[in-house]
Fold each of these.
Amino acid sequence: MKKAGKNGKRKLEKAHLRLRVNGEEVEVAFAPHKTLLEVLREDLRLTGTKHGCELGECGCCAVLVDGRPVLSCLALGVAMEGHEVTTVEGMAVGTELHPLQQTFAELGAAQCGYCTPGILLTAKALLEHIPRPSRDEIKEALAGNLCRCTGYIKILEAVELAAARMAGEKAEPAKETIYGWE
Amino acid sequence: MAGNNGGKRSLRVVGKPFVKVDAKAKCIGELKYADDLFLPRMLHTKLLRSTVPHARIVHIDVSKAKAYPGVHAVLTGADLPPITYGALPVSEDEHPLAVGKVRMVGDPVAAVAAVDEDVATEALDLVAVEYEPLPVITSIQDAYATAEPRIHEYGEFGNIHRRQAYEFGSIEAGFAEADYVREDITFYEGSTHLALEQHASLAQFSHDGKLTLWTSTQDMHYLHRHLAKVLEMPASHIRVIATPNGGGFGGKCDPFNHEIVVCKLAMVTGRPVKICLTREEVFYCHRGRHPVLMSTKTGYKKDGSITAMHHRTILDGGAYGGHGVASTFYTGILQPTTYKLPNYRFEAVRVFTNKAPCGPKRGHGTPQPRWAQEIQMDKIADQLGLDPAEMRKQHAIAPNSITANWIRIGTLSLRQCIDKVVAGSGWKDKFRKLAYGKGIGIACSAYMTGTQTPIYYNKLPHSGVQLKLDRSGGVCVFCGSAEIGQGSDSILAYIVAEVLGIGPFDIRVVTGDTDLTPVDLGSYSSRVTLMTGNAAIEAAERARHMLREAVAAKLEVPSERLSFADRRVFDSENPEKGVSFVDAVCLAEEKYGTLGTTGSYKPPAAPGKYKGATIGPSPAFSCTAAIAEVEVNPETGIIVVPRIWIAHDIGQAINPVLAVGQIEGCVYMGLGEALMEEMAYRGNRNLVHKFPSFLEYKSPTTLEMCDVITYLVEEPDANGPFGAKEVGQGPQLPVPPAIANAVYDAVGIRVDEVPITPDKVLKAIRAKAKGQEGRYGPSAFPTCPMPPTMVVPTPWQGGDGKALEREPALTKK
């Protein structure tokens, strides 16, 4: 197309970085004003990371940077050099789901699934910090992640179930969680 | 009924908590939503939106934007055919890009397609628009008072979009029979869906002249028709693919301007074109809950039985029609489906205002009238000294009955639902017995499972399913339904697996693609499980018949003795004798040739014959009872809801864990509407939204969400697949009034409008302390000239479902 060549007004030099994402080193070149969210989704095509506002308000885009939850829409891609970034694509090991992914699937904690990646990663960071959190601690940790489908209940239950399993228990969901109360 | 095949016989898949077919894809980030799609050479679109609420467009100059490097196309309303569209045929009042005038802040005026979003955004700044401001209509009161200018040139008159008036039986006679009559004026504020996924669409125009649109839509089929109309293309040349919706709640039901615009831009540029709306734009797309002002005058006896109701509603529709005419009906037409109501008059008005258009949000038009009646019921019980739970139970509508407005009710276990929550919550030990500041309240509801009529008139099936089976043993289900997170894809797999005796993960489900899948009307009105489920049963039973005949011939066993289970087809009298499911499919393919079956579903006819009788009837009604416990701080007015008990008659849960999840989601959304969510505008500042962002539009987080104790009441309904009824919307209805009633129990004040915010609570508490009425809410109900009332005799008056006299002038001034 003839107009393609006309995009010459903004001659931004692309930043050329080596990043560690999900345990792998990747080389990527991108406009330096791009957020980590944009770099992940647009340049690395890791579209598992979602966005609901791009203003740091909903928690959909949460990823882990050096194991801590970060809203990727508020972080610059260029600031990630030398840091370890984990996205939802990096949670499973091979074909084995992370216990949180397994319990979220089992309990229907992912309804539309759009807030799920951000919540899974935030919960993962919580469980690494507090292996057996109380219900209140889970609520506190996930208070910045909005979900419009579930009313959060199945999410809280899934985090508790995963925590129990990660502690080596053969935990199953409560009967009421699955079938409601008698 | 095919749908009830086997009833409660031993089910292997239905009723079991299987993981959803797409759950793991969602949990590993593999599922592709619309904005996750990228095509080579793809352009990005941004829309220039109106900065003024009501104005004539004097001039638009796009020349600078067109010349901007990286811009490939700029469109205005003049570049599209002058064809309007809109969700309902009676109010097709939208243009993809404004033509002549703008009607709200956020109306799209121009569109830019450019190499990336940044360039497109920069180019928008170069579009010059000259507006000539028009007087702004901000509210119901404004709309009533302002005949000119009209926001639209159609409608009843002035800025009145729609009026309707019905009387079923005689309220005059009903009021005469009553021991008491009371009128309550209540208000239900508008709120928005706030789905986490921002609307996104990607269009591609191929050199064979075919157009493909991937888009986050709940109603792909209707969108398909609108695209054909507005783009002036044969529908058969357009393919709409409904990508998995990152939440819908009714917010992705309308055909949207941005969907049409990216199609046009793809056709103009010859390149794929994508748009993803910003969160602020999503707020202006809206189509959410209508703000509704209501007057509910009810006659009742000393036992709390209702003798008559005169229910009036006024809807603030915003700038466009959308689904608004249907919403208008729903603010009253389901009122007689919960408690016995022998005489009922319903009058409704919808007005246009210069705000974001309202439409269908979870419960579509019914949470508002439910709010009005349920808080009034609480006042009635209080006045009569009756237990409000017992009173509701006593007057709950009977199963297998016909309402005053000719809606047929099948199964309805409302009494059982009330018993469940009363027992579970310890109601009898708590009601009017808790310390000041703590309270408990109850409310109930009923809701439809799909509508009897499609949005545009036709006699075609509402849902179609195709099944493909082949020698691999593979079964593929094709259906035009749209997965919005409710689990509709999984329901298809569960039902087909149940009928064919295989596992749900043996099945491939293909949905939401107008080229590949048969028509289903979409994910709205809680219709999907019932309608796609019944169509799937029919398709699967036809396949089972072929497999059974083929296996019977091979095994020399009478075909009626063959059973399907555990991936085998076998002699039920001698289970050892049988073949694998794969072999059964091979035998059938050998006998019949290539295997494929279809199933369709169309709801049964409703008994009402009057004009408008097609809105309201449903194949099956669910019902719900909810009890809320609250803590009200009388110093701050802050309400905390620790717990809600909720019982829902679902008929049969196809998957209990998903059903419980839907109920919890309904409680959550009801809690948000009850306490904090509101679409608020700055009336004195250009009618812009007060807070079009996640941060300022308050919705419950994990910290505000209450505990939920859910009870599934299962009494299979003959019209539901395996007896199933809806669960996605109905359970929201009783939540806000249960909370309001609990607030009264806690601190003795009535807040008769949602959201029940701390300032309103405090005002009512202070008024009460001064000896005034402890109430916050509207006190006036404006009137406008109404059309002649359509009078319809009730079944118990010996009516035949027709109106007494036809009123030809209903929609005209």
Amino acid sequence: MNSTDQFRELIEAYALGALDADERAQLEAHLAAGCAECAKALEEARWLVSQLAYTAPEAEPSEMLKGRLMKTVRAEAGAAGGGPGTGSGGAGVAGTGMQAGSAKGAIPFWMWAAVAALLLFSVYSTWNMRRMELQIREANDRAATLLAERQKMQDRLVMAKKETMIMMDPASHKIALWGEHAHPETLEAKWHAEWGLCVEGEKVPMPAKNHVLQVWFIPKGEGAKPMPSMTVTPDASGKLMLLISNPPEQMDNTKAIAITEEPMGGSGWPTMPILWSGNVT
Amino acid sequence: MSLDATLLTRLLKKDVSAFEQLYERHSRLVYGLVLRILQQAATSEEVVQDVFLQLWRNAGQYDAARGPFVPWLLTMARNRALDHLRRKSERQRRLEEQTDHLPSVFASPNYEQALDEKRKAERVRALMASLAPQQKRAIELAYFEGMSHTEIAAALREPLGTVKSWIRSGLLRLKEGLQQAKA
């Protein structure tokens, strides 16, 4: 056996790192002398020994390890000006993000994106809140309008019921209101001791602009002052309906009822000629 | 050109994405090896971190034309792990000169590329399992614990010559088995 054969037998153990010091030193001297055969055998033996790694059970390192590694690598790549600028075309998204995120003194892209997203969210939230407030206010207004209309209809219904009862109840006292001068239409009033006075008429002329019709109670007794009551305007068809729920408590003291045309809002004293009047019997 | 070779070419240009892909491809194998040697997860992760940072910083020292990447990476990981073990035990000083952090290149046989990682692992495990228990144990003590022939002989209470023979014949059987797998 020549020296090469002797050393050749040590190659695998050398690659494995199992040679004791003296044998290792001898082999290294032989290799240093330039034995090509042993050098080639050593390269192959190193590969063979590396295959023993596969006998170790595979194990999964923690995600934290990868995180630490990537953080360091990204920082170094950024400091060195690496990444897409110096990397290959296949550096990919990760490479792009890494460089932007690790440049010294620069705010990472993801932080800008997060701030922008936060601002957008704040603006949207404020706008949405305002929009909801407006919607709530509009809904409240609509509800208030509907409630007011409902109340108005209920009031009208109550009045209509009262008017009907006054007009139909046999206990009501009829008062004919005769037209003066250019008002030949006859109005009719009925008074009920409990429910009040109701005045109605058809084809009643519309008062002048900014004027209304006003009812007056004329007390008995010479020189008694007319007592002003409610005002009314006939509808477009000339129909007139007026309920006075609180007529003078003592209709017995009322001599007559009169209607005049007065400025809008009524007057405290008749300012215009009497258009209709009728005696209370 | 293999995927690893392509990634390493990009790694030379400090392509972080290429590094990440290499880590994803090989970290489990490397970590499994280091953990088998050190038997301690936290320390093993430190070593694996050192290995991959070494790869990132010194990728240029690997020459793809002279051998496959994975054996080179595994050897670097083993050397690092044994270094760590040695620092703890002050044992096996004889390996100090061998455990340079960037291992020598490998002249892999032409069947190396034929087996994918999974099949290769299964094949190596099966071949090792086919060895006599003491023979297998001797190789494991050398590979995973960095013991010398003499230390293994003492640990197994076997003659030194027997241990040397077990280890060499076992490795040659492994080599033949891998060659047969190619065939």
